[in-house]
């Protein structure tokens, strides 16, 4: 519309510019009356004036027309611009809308692709999970089948074959608490046969035995065989060896006592290199080395220069005596500087090794004096309870039923077994009111502990797991390392190394090392190192041992034998023949 108006105005301007002014004035002049001359003049003047006015008017009109044209042109242009801008904006909006639509379409497409990919991934995940679950179920099933096949730890025992029942004189010994194996059939059969062949009376025979073995920290074998008690008058009264039967475990007791000492060391209450007399409350010296303090480390490692002696040994166990103080303190009732309790010159403290039970009675006394608790009570609270050990250093502490569960130690003589320790009826001294700090010899820190195969397996697991048992910290791993590392080694002259004298060639804190290529090697035809401790007394022989740096280990014991230990040397080492038989059968069939 504005374009058409502009064209009309332009046409009008063109017409006005092309028309003569006289033409415009003529009609006006012809309508005015006039005389011939004046009229002509007036007419001419009037015409001129009119013409001038008309011209001015025309100019004004033209100017006005031009201004209007300009205004309208400007308005038209502005409107055109506005329309163009609006059109452009509309175009942009359309483009933007189109772009948004495209973007939304692209986004929708991307979302669809993403949803599809997610669905695919989820499907793949579900498939993988299903596959993993199926694999897990297959694995679990396979493990369960294997466990069922090998009689591994289960709530219900598998059906046992005849070779599984070898050496089981009682039905209870067939239960999973007393017998199970995660070994292959061949290894299980071979080990069962080797152990069953040990039972009986005569050379190398034993009345009863127990074995529990671990591989990579997991139990792979246990077997309880034979009798824990023989009745001389009625075989129906015989009792089985079970995993919970308590036996006097001899020097394995020292391992528990050393754990108690190391707990106090960790608390900063005992220093291994401190003069032990400071903790005991009296001067403790070998008279042949008066200037050399006897340290806790020396007591733990049997390098104290003290010797066991029968001349006043009974005083260590007399409930009315002052214990070791009466023998070793210079003011003691039985003190004798010339006594055989002291190593001679040339066997200096800290350098010369001689196994001595007295050392661990000193350590029991130190535990009492430093902790303020009676030895057996300290051991129960701080060592046995976290290890879930049911044993005790005091038979009197056991219930009547508990005492009935104590096995007897035997030694064969004249073709039959004779009880040496814990015969029936079982006697137990009443120590309920015995005071702490007087004499721990009555509890026997060196060898009087009664505990079971199950108990010993807990101790072993604690050591192999760096001081922790079943999630409970009993010792630090550093303390376990200290205990199991050699403090003393045989160098050719620092002990009398032989089967009948000192059959230990390396020792830590209640830990002996058995080098695979040494004179105490565990097996004959292969090098297999062990660390741990043996126990040998009154016919009992046992061990708590593991392969250093691994979680492969085992416990074993027998509750009697034929003859005395010194009468039964090993075939290829300076260990006893029974220790060789157990270690060979266990190591060669399991490890």
Could you walk me through the main structural features you see in this protein, from its secondary elements to its overall organization?
There is one protein chain. This protein has 591 residues and is an alpha+beta fold. The longest helix is centred in the first third of the chain and has 113 residues, at 38-150. The chain has helices at residues 2-18, 21-29, 38-150, 185-196, 253-266, 276-280, 296-300, 325-328, 358-371, 375-387, 400-404, 453-464, 477-484, 577-590; strands spanning 179-181, 208-215, 218-229, 239-240, 247-248, 409-413, 416-421, 450-451, 468-469, 472-473, 488-489, 506-507, 512-514, 530-537, 540-546, 553-558, 560-562. The strands form 5 sheets. Strands 1, 2, 3, 4, 13, 14, 15 and 16 form an 8-stranded antiparallel β-sheet that branches. The chain has a 3-stranded mixed β-sheet with strand order 7-6-17, with no helix packed on it. Helices cover 41% and strands 13% of the residues. The protein has 2 domains: 2-150; 248-582, DD-peptidase/beta-lactamase superfamily (Beta-lactamase, 3-Layer(aba) Sandwich), CATH 3.40.710.10. The chain contains 14 helices and 17 strands.
